[in-house]
Specification:
Two copies of one chain form a homodimer.
Chain A lengths: L32 E3 L2 H6 L6 H9 L8 E4 L3 H14 L2 E5 L18 E5 L6 E5 L4 E5 L4 H8 L4 E2 L12 H7 L6 H4 L2 H4 E8 L2 E5 L11 H5 L8 E8 L1 E2 L3 E9 L2 H13 L6 E5 L1 H13 L4 H10 L6 E9 L1 H17 L3 E4 L1 H9 L3 H10 L2 E11 L3 H12 L12 E9 L2 E11 L4 H21 L18 H20 L20
Parallel strand pairs in A: 2-4, 3-4
Antiparallel strand pairs in A: 1-2, 5-6, 6-10, 7-11, 8-9, 8-10, 12-14, 12-15, 13-14, 13-17, 16-18, 17-18
Chain lengths: ~525, ~525
């Protein structure tokens, strides 16, 4: 059972339960394949956020696209956008459909909506092995990227949790970060050049290692979320596949000492590719859910008790490269962990992490079957503010629901570290009302509290899931009034008719769940 | 004798030789100090490019600012821009005045021009030691930055050749790169947040390690060159001062094998902070000019002859950090150099490089006294295109002048490497006609040939000197028509009256030398 599998996009998905209105009259799309059958429209109706799953499981959709287009090249894409722009048809670009921010969801609106599936703009187009530059079509998925590079001994090193389904274009459009971003960088660091098509023109950004020629246009399109144009290909920086990859774990005495171990390691220039610290609640879940399978848990707990650690915080360290580089990185990691009085656990928990790294989203459905809903969100902040962000979010969410169902279990980990700060990733759970509208309403209330807390301490609106529709009410607080006007001016220049993803990035819909 | 020294901005500069027109009637600037005396106007009339020096030495200026303002805070800066915008006064932001692209030069125009000197917006404002974030006023010079950080054991690590005079705001506005950018990154990598003031609003970009909230606004202002707003402060990422710094040299057998050594080292993830390869002509100059002083040259040449290297190419390697890190980096460097059959020279030439690293610009004046003009330009390209760029530029410039003065000595080095490419830095010389107009005309002809060659092979318009006025005819070839429209849309949103640095970045003046 695969999340987003084209044959079964959502577990429990049953197309026959939905009633779709007949599509309105649409313009002629020339030689581009455009389908209006219910199956195509349903499969492109929602992303993979919790409200999406709740709506799809309940058979209750506020809107679906009126048609789905499958352009085969930039010219077809350009002609689609021109036609849509001239006739007021709203356009939603679709990569892997894994948005968790409402980034691909149509809004109920009398104007027709066309979803543009980029699946046919896919594959490795050119490879410059000398420079390590690989050009991929926007619709290329994570496994396709790595499969194309592996025979040449290369890797992109970009492994978001959505890796199995998400695409090159979607990564660039939403500021994706892979699980080893500490080593390989975020997607913005990996993009050397790109092509994008907008209603009023095409943008060709040449692949250059650096340029001093004015504002970096790559940054106009990284994070553009289909609102400023449709990315059709990207030239990505690829690196030699590492000889070896190793993940090991330690247990910090508490969250504060764990944060300090991470901060000191990162600021000392540690050669790690991955660094992650779970807070107490997440560690508890990891030890019971993650390790119980190995029958290792009671032994581990006893061993830790002997060392005076009862409620520690799990640290995961990853390094890749030559055997010597990896040894060097782990020497540093063990030294800093020791100085912070953490207990080294070795490779066991790391093996579980590697095994499960893309599987956690699949747990959501089992939980829903059991009556519990779960969602995640993440932010980023300077090291000096991590404690404040953590406190603000916990304060906002714990006890957020009244009555017998008041407890909102909340887990957190730090990951994706930078010299000057780190991402905080939160997972929350709540008892899910059986009525989908009530469930979505409860989710929206919690989401609002979380984002208000994040914004109140000046942390990032999102670290690697973009703005979409669900973060759009908060992003202007990060940009400021002038910054918001800037982004709007660019959108207006590229898309004066305002047909591209109209509720995403700017101008959110009235309701959080659309 | 200091280049740009406030007491003697240009060697040979004599203010009494210039006749300045009386400034036109200017609006009232409120409580901001604005000076109209000849000395202030002359000192802010030109940058530090070759045509600037030629014009200033000859006492022949096409234009000078009509007044110079010295705002003390963002409010004063904002009020200046509002007044200028309302009354059509053109504004040129001034940091260290070290532009080599005509970025601070007024154009002859009936409308008045106000140069805004940011020297009073300077100094360390706040320091977050935990996160390594230091907030500096835009007018803070390189030495002031390092002096403020050193007592805390920190460094910015940003050492452009203009370090002594150039400023934080100028670095950000022009995509500055320091000599150790391989280790510390370009200025864009070092900017966590910033404030900028434009005629229609202020932009506050919070210091975040990363954010997925839409297009990265930092990239709108990095490279904005005073055209999109005036940067008033930046939050910069600072790092612990390295325990040790080492520079050593080797001699590659030829340019091609030297390039390959660099490429392989960089793609293998070398832990160096600096890597530089001179071509044959530049190596010849380095060996005779740079090493003769040490009486080391004849010995070295004999020693190299014995090893079969007669016309090699100088490689410089720099590393900093802990003693162990530096040893590790040099172990890699020696191994790759050896595999490329380069001869290791040790620390001698590196010492000269460190001694002279900020001094080369001062040689220009001695050369001019002797009747020779020299200028530099730089670009960047993927590794696979380095040979093509090198060939195109040499083809365009060698033999570019007819007659007995036809030889244009041309030197090149690679520096500022990236995983996917590298910067190529060229120095050319020509016999300087005594008439300044003729000298500038000869320079403009060579500059045009060079930039045409760079653009013809799709290399970067500039790697670290920005667009200014002199690269503005070529930058649109890099941006494309749509990219140019994007940048123009942002400029129009922030500065609808078009008063900010009107000939810089976009809309170049008719003549290359203004």
């Amino acid at each position: 059972r695969r999340l987003g599998d084209p044959e079964a996009p959502f577990p429990g998905f049953d197309g026959s339960r939905f009633q779709l209105a007949d599509p309105p009259s649409l313009p002629s799309w020339g030689d581009v394949e455009v389908r209006t059958d219910a199956d195509d429209r349903l499969r492109h109706a929602r992303g993979q956020g919790l409200p999406d799953v709740l709506r799809l499981r309940a058979g209750s959709l506020p809107a679906a696209p009126d048609a789905v287009a499958y352009p085969q090249n930039d010219d077809q894409l350009g002609s689609l956008l021109e036609t849509a722009s001239a006739s007021g048809v709203r356009v939603i670009p679709w990569g892997g459909g894994t948005s968790v921010t409402g980034g691909v969801n149509p809004v109920p609106d009398p104007r027709p909506t066309l979803t543009v599936d980029l699946g046919r703009l896919s594959g490795l187009e050119t490879l410059d092995e000398e420079s390590g530059l690989a050009t991929f079509g926007a619709g290329t998925s994570g496994p396709e990227v790595e499969r194309a590079l592996r025979p040449r001994g290369l890797t992109l090193g970009h492994f978001p949790q959505s890796f199995e389904l998400s695409t090159v274009g979607g990564w660039v459009a939403t500021h994706s970060s892979g699980q080893e971003s500490f080593g390989y960088g975020r997607i913005g660091d990996l993009v050397a050049g790109l092509d994008a098509v907008a209603p009023t023109g095409r943008l060709h950004i040449p692949a250059l290692p650096a340029s001093a020629a004015g504002p970096d246009l790559r940054a106009f399109m990284t994070g553009s979320e289909g609102r400023l144009g449709v990315i059709s290909r990207a030239v990505l920086r690829v690196t030699p596949s590492p000889e070896t990859m190793r993940v090991e774990a330690a247990l910090a005495r508490d969250f504060t000492s764990g944060i300090e171990i991470c901060r000191r390691l990162v600021r000392a220039g540690a050669g790690l590719s991955m660094l992650r610290l779970s807070d107490g609640p997440e560690t508890e879940v990891a030890l019971t859910v993650g390790l119980a399978k190995s029958a290792f848990e009671p032994l581990l707990r006893g061993w830790l008790r002997l060392r005076g650690v009862e409620r520690g915080c799990l640290l995961l360290f990853g390094a890749n490269g030559s055997a010597g580089d990896v040894d060097g990185a782990f020497e540093d990691a063990r030294r800093f962990a020791g100085e912070g009085r953490a207990v080294w656990l070795g490779a066991g928990p790391g093996k579980n992490w590697r095994r499960d790294r893309f599987h956690h989203p699949y747990l959501r459905d089992g939980l829903l079957d059991a009556g519990y809903a779960t969602d995640t969100f993440e932010t980023a902040a300077p090291w000096s503010k991590v404690g404040e962000v953590y406190g603000a979010v916990r304060g906002a969410l714990l006890g957020a629901v009244e009555g017998p169902e008041r407890e909102i279990p909340l887990l957190c980990h730090l990951s994706h570290p930078y010299a000057d700060g780190v991402s905080l990733y939160f997972t929350f759970f709540f008892r899910c009302p059986p009525d989908p509208d009530a469930a979505v309403e409860r989710w929206a209330g919690l989401k609002r509290r979380a984002q208000d807390a994040v914004a109140s301490v000046g942390a990032a609106t999102s670290h690697h899931h973009g703005v979409g529709s669900w973060h759009a009410p908060w992003a202007p607080r990060e940009w400021g009034e002038t910054g918001t006007r800037l982004i709007r001016a660019v959108a207006k220049e590229l898309d004066p008719a305002g047909v591209l993803n109209p509720h995403v990035l700017l101008d959110p819909a009235d309701r959080l769940d659309i």
